[in-house]
């Protein structure tokens, strides 16, 4: 259950509140004045704090202000036997979760504490969800590093992003192609519009057209309702076609038409739909070889490759590993709820000796393993023991 702190100079009130809350299986601490309450609040993580307003040494509203400055998400319930409406309004303006008059009613206390805990849990869930969304948007794909290669890519993005020129990003799996695509979008005039990603390698060939262009109801067996495709959903924004080298020949032809005419037609439909989309594509394949082998359309290649950007493999920019490692250590500790850990210089040097065939994505996974399996810091011993899976 919850951990609750009661700050009140009246021992009888503290005892009454403690009995009520402990009956509900909560853990309760007490403080007889503001300074001691603040000291306890700094040393422990409380779920809710109940605080009297009229106290010696420090007024309850001053205590509230200091608590909010320390953690503005902490639910603080103010209690007073001499309060007025103005006092209640002032407390709420300063960040109090609620205001209760003395003598406190048992039902009111329990309901208020329950609501405060619900609010705290909701705030935490929202924060976790935002972190998850941020990981999906950036996370592993953030462009972290100061190598010459990355700085050249950043400079290219600064020039290219403001235009609507199509960009073809090449590089190995896990090198960070999506991070480049997102940065192009975020620095463009379309940044307020959607960023829609399609992994062409993950969608079966028979479904890729429906995924890209949408379909009309009844156009095929499982089409029980009309559905918009990614081109329509990306209208006004950026469409990121990842692993475009795996797209079927039929879909390639339709994408070419969409790029030429800025129009698409849903599967099973006959109506042209105008779309305003910037297309950024990426691939881990050599598309010139795919063209020679008859697997990729040369005209589509030239439409997509107005601006080519190559993301080098991690093994070709080992000088980025220190910053990437520290970034991932911090990220993983935050995600896992683990106290912050340090990675030593010798550990980083050991990481720089590895081949990194999986590029930045592999490094992120290795760092997660090291964070979980190491103690307070990650040393070269842990890297040697855990960086390369054994089995």
Description:
The chain has 391 residues and is α/β, with parallel strands linked by helices. It has 3 domains: 3-134, Response regulator (Rossmann fold, 3-Layer(aba) Sandwich); 142-312, P-loop containing nucleotide triphosphate hydrolases (Rossmann fold, 3-Layer(aba) Sandwich); 315-386, Orthogonal Bundle (Helicase, Ruva Protein, domain 3). It contains 16 helices and 16 strands. It has helices at 11-23, 34-43, 60-70, 85-93, 106-137, 148-160, 177-186, 208-213, 230-233, 249-261, 287-292, 298-304, 321-336, 345-351, 359-373, 380-386; strands at residues 3-7, 27-31, 48-52, 76-80, 98-101, 167-170, 195-199, 214-215, 227-228, 238-242, 263-264, 273-274, 278-283, 307-310, 342-343, 377-378. A 5-stranded parallel β-sheet has the order 2-1-3-4-5, with helices on both faces. β11 (263-264) and β12 form a beta hairpin. α2 (34-43) packs parallel to α3 (60-70) and α14 packs parallel to α16. The longest helix is centred in the first third of the chain and has 32 residues, at 106-137. The relative contact order is 0.09. The model is unreliable at 135-141 (pLDDT under 50).
Provide keyphrases for this structure.
5-stranded parallel beta sheet; Rossmann fold; 391 residues; Helicase, Ruva Protein, domain 3; 16 helices; alpha/beta
